[in-house]
Design brief:
Layout lengths: L1 E8 L2 E6 L4 E6 L1 H5 L9 E5 L4 E5 L5 E2 L4 E2 L3 E7 L7 H13 L3 E7 L7 H12 L3 E4 L3 H7 L4 E5 L6 H8 L9 H8 L7 E6 L2 E4 L14 H6 L2 H4 L19 H7 L5 H26 L1
Helix pairs in contact: 2-10
The structure holds guanosine-5'-triphosphate, magnesium ion and zinc ion (ZN).
Length: 288
């Protein structure tokens, strides 16, 4: 029988079968020998009688932290205040999500506390370049958009990820504030992931992260994950233009004309610098 892993607690894998039944399975011993770990999100073949995961179907994508696979959408939750809205972190999360072939969807929280013109400007800009942006009050729209999708919630600690899940499904009763931090980061629960069924969607809450980097990505990858560059890149003089110091760079012109958001472009320059510094320290370490 086929199904999808929707919950992992140490070596217990809850599989939702195609007939909607849920069973708890163990993985086949051979996975361990081959160093294969089934992930929450995996589509699997199971032996129903023995409750064994026999096979893992090819993954569309997989993430290390949280350890999940086959994600369609990552909801990037950002608050206007507490913690303050920061375009740099948002751009970084979007870049890494794009790199993993996942669609980022932005959800803004705490607009009841504050909503500056600057944030409104960013919201319209993100919409203009093709991203979906919702407020956490637009619950029906969010539900409609994620219908039948496998979704993770990501974002800084305290932005309101668990609160959003509770609002999407009031029967969830997820812990918010301090307690959720302890749970999410606790040693014994780091490998625990659960997808909640909300309507016909699967959503996983993830603990807020403390640091993010561009591990495994090249400078070109970082460039190509800026959606608004791609449409116009053929207008640059050089086909491999990095849009930094090159002559006749169309993208730089668009930034000067205010058609590409300057803050986002500055974040791009910063990310490239960060990547360069990462490579330098890597080389130094490598020589020792
Ligand atoms: N005023 C207001 N408060 C909110 C909103 N969303 C969440 N909060 C509050 O913000 C605090 C943090 O919310 P959580 O849902 O625990 O945040 P989280 O993103 O799950 O945090 P971690 O689990 O630590 O990653 C809680 O006190 C919530 O009640 C909102 O839209 N408006
Ligand atoms: Mg939480
Ligand atoms: Zn260019």
């Amino acid at each position: 029988m086929n199904g999808q892993i929707i919950k992992v607690i140490s070596n217990d894998y809850t599989v939702k079968l195609d007939n909607n039944e849920k069973i708890v399975c163990k993985p086949r011993g051979v996975f361990r020998n081959r160093n294969i770990t089934p992930l929450a999100g995996d589509f699997v073949k199971v032996n129903y009688e023995n409750k064994i995961i026999e096979d893992i179907l090819p993954r569309k994508n997989e993430l290390k932290r949280p350890p999940v696979s086959n994600i369609d959408i990552a909801i990037v939750v950002v608050s206007t205040v507490n913690p303050d809205f920061g375009i740099n972190l948002l751009d970084k999360m979007i870049n890494i999500i794009e790199f993993n072939n996942i669609e980022p969807v932005i959800v803004i929280t705490k607009s009841d506390l504050s909503l500056t013109d600057k944030i409104k400007e960013y919201i319209s800009y993100f919409k203009e370049i093709g991203y979906k942006v919702f407020f956490n009050t637009e619950l029906d729209d969010i539900k409609g958009y994620i219908k039948n999708k496998t979704v993770i919630l990501t974002g800084q600690t305290g932005v309101g990820k668990s609160s959003l899940l509770n609002k999407l499904d009031s029967s969830l009763n997820l812990k918010t504030d301090e307690i959720s931090k302890a749970l999410g980061r606790g040693k014994h629960t780091t490998r625990a992931v659960e997808f909640y069924e909300i309507g016909s969607s699967y959503l996983a809450d993830t603990p807020g992260f403390s640091s993010l980097n561009f591990e495994g990505m090249t400078k070109e990858d970082i460039r190509d994950n800026f959606k608004e560059f791609n449409e116009y890149r053929n207008n640059c003089k050089y086909s491999d233009c990095m849009h930094i110091k090159e002559d006749d760079c169309y993208i730089k012109n668009l930034v000067e004309q205010g058609k590409i958001n300057k803050d986002r472009y500055d974040d791009y320059l910063g990310f490239i610098k960060e990547k360069e510094n990462e490579s330098i320290s890597f080389n130094i370490k490598g020589k020792k």
